Prior knowledge:
The complex is a heterodimer of chains A (about 400) and B (about 325).
Chain A: H1 2-16, E1 27-36, H2 56-73, E2 75-84, H3 91-99, E3 104-108, H4 111-120, E4 127-130, E5 147-149, H5 154-167, E6 172-178, H6 181-197, E7 200-207, H7 219-230, E8 239-243, E9 263-265, E10 270-272, H8 283-294, H9 300-319, H10 324-332, E11 359-362, E12 367-371
Parallel strand pairs in A: 1-2, 1-3, 3-4, 4-5, 6-7, 6-8, 8-9
Antiparallel strand pairs in A: 10-11, 11-12
Chain B: H1 2-19, E1 26-31, E2 36-41, E3 46-52, E4 57-62, E5 68-73, E6 78-83, E7 89-93, E8 99-104, E9 110-115, E10 120-125, E11 130-136, E12 141-146, E13 152-157, E14 162-167, E15 173-178, E16 183-188, E17 194-199, E18 204-209, E19 214-220, E20 236-238, E21 244-248, E22 254-259, E23 265-270, E24 275-280, E25 286-291, E26 296-301, E27 306-312, E28 317-322
Antiparallel strand pairs in B: 1-2, 1-28, 2-3, 4-5, 5-6, 6-7, 8-9, 9-10, 10-11, 12-13, 13-14, 14-15, 16-17, 17-18, 18-19, 20-21, 21-22, 22-23, 24-25, 25-26, 26-27
Amino acid sequence: MKRSGKLIMLACLMACTHLTTAAMAADKISIGYLQTFEKGRLTISVLDQPADNLGLAGAEVGINDNNTTGRFMGQEFSLDDVKLSPDEDMIPALDRLYQQGVRFFVLDVSADNVLKAADHFRSADVVIFNAGAEDNRLRNEDCRSNVIHTAPSRAILADGLAQYLIWKKWRDWFLVSGSNPADKAWAASLRRAATRYGAKIVSEKEYVDTGGARQTDSGHAQVQKQMPVFSQDAEDHDVVVVADESEVFGTYLPYRTWLPRPVTGSAGLQAVSWHPAFEGWGAAQIQNRFAKHAGRRMQGIDMQAWTAVRMVGEAATRTKSADPAKIDAYIKDPGFSIAAFKGQKITLRDWNLQLRQPVLLADGKNVVSVSPQSGFLHQFSELDTLGYDKPETSCKLNQ
Amino acid sequence: MKKTVLRLLATSCLICATAAPAVAFTAYVSNEKGNSISVIDTDTKEVVKTIKTGNRPRGITISHDGKFIYVCVSDDDTIEVIDAKTHQIVGTLPSGPDPELFVLSPDGKRLYVANEDDNLVTVINLEDNTVVNEIPVGVEPEGMGVSPDGKSVVNTSETTNMAHFIDTDSFEITHNVLVDARPRFAEFKSDGSEVWVSSEIGGTVSVIDNSSREIKHKISFEIQGVVAEAIQPVGVRITKDGKKAFVSLGPSNRVAMINAETYEVEKYILVGQRVWQLAFTPDEKYVISTNGNSNDVTFIEVASGKAVKSVAVGQLPWGVVVSPN
């Protein structure tokens, strides 16, 4: 009884407010968050060990933000999260969430799994956000009209890095790449960026992953001798660019190269969508509330998940609707934009549903620069100097 | 002979008119990175003193009698009270964490503060320095405006993208008006008829009718040779007669001069880099802009819309207020 009194008061309060007159029964919007979680994944530095709530915490903060706004709109957001092992079939989980009413899915899974989900829901009233996979092919030949990418592509990150290196006049690169597929994909994007922006790869070398432990008690003694020798025979260069997504050797390179040269790519100066130390453009605010919620600071994947959840929230607010079709149409409208602490409005590329976004260049401690660099011009948006531009993409949506 | 004398007289009169000394006011500029306030004589347009403050001073205002300066020192989670005569910090106010902007009630008794981290508007009673109330608002409250009759306060929430109208008697939200992305600032017309809300990322200014609490007009901006993304409206000031408005446009490095009756942009005035907040001199002869990235402020002549002088201040000038006397 007492409780219903409170409810009536709340309802009165809401009815009095301007936007909520017609929204007495809250519209419920459920968002599914699926991630592939590799237990015990090793990194060279323990500081880089992924947190258990990596990505998920970003989605949770996004839900909280949506609900703060939702209070004024009569909209209620909730998150259903699922952790999958790398070889687990994700279709049963997708179906279960769909049956529970979930129509928005934020995925931090492999490119193959993104495609599986997209094709599974091809004719369903579902919107999928790819928050994790950076593969260029999802923005090109394997693009899907029901997948929106909040994760930057490798090409976007590589171009952001290349622009800065060119600005620094570090034009001669020594490219070192790992032997795993992800390393090779990253190296390919770096090569493309070199060609686009006029850098020259003067030497190239592969570091073969032969297995073995990442760090051992006295491992540094060997590494200290291995890295100078490994990098000894390169032509003279301005900068070492390393492609090692698999975390096999990249962070061994700084301070140990034969020539005293800065290291970038997968170690040293890195291109990221977000950084725990970034405080520009009002970012201190989201960093603070994220840290309060998650007990750690915000990483790139957290921001990519937050942005996806906020896009749903923003579209629901603006359309005053929980209807997935209306929200989908609103997000894909050419006029759509969202504020995401990137210093300018963030919009979608209509040719492949990739979020346009600035790239932060950061070392372990701080943000060094933000690309696009001034002077790299574009006839429509300077952000389109990063990644696959409209004339370059092989994506054909709706086919 | 006669003619010459007359002409001379006429010329000297003209000189009299143009050279008539402007009334000297004092402008206070908060330097976000410099942790200081630059004190400027608005007549000579020179910095006469620098006051040291706490960490990251941003929002700045002055009591209606001109005796006390209030400045949000965001990284110290407080508001410092500075004696305008002695330039000494004489106290702090219980602002709540990370205060950024605030507004003083027309009767001078209350300060309404936006607390970004807690999604709250904090109401401070200045007579006994106590918190009167905390009002839950949207995500990242920022801009604060108060109606001339003091009866309502408008808060803008940057991630919720709303202007929240708060009744200052009941402390309840009466209206929520959805505006474009990242609303930064709210400014009432002096007759209370309209509230102007700037949207930094949306790139617009929403003119909200204060009786219907609905958007009656949206002002957008277009500057030749400047990409649309760089046009980011932040500070807004409207003249007392309600005829002219100035809107600072962030990284486009310009201030827009707007006919506040027709909402037409009349002029874009090039000032300094990342122009942020604005303040009129009390005689409305000048409007002063803070240009964060070029470490200066620009005096714009209100009548002509011409930038007459830029003055170097401390590091990252953010807010500005001019003494009433």
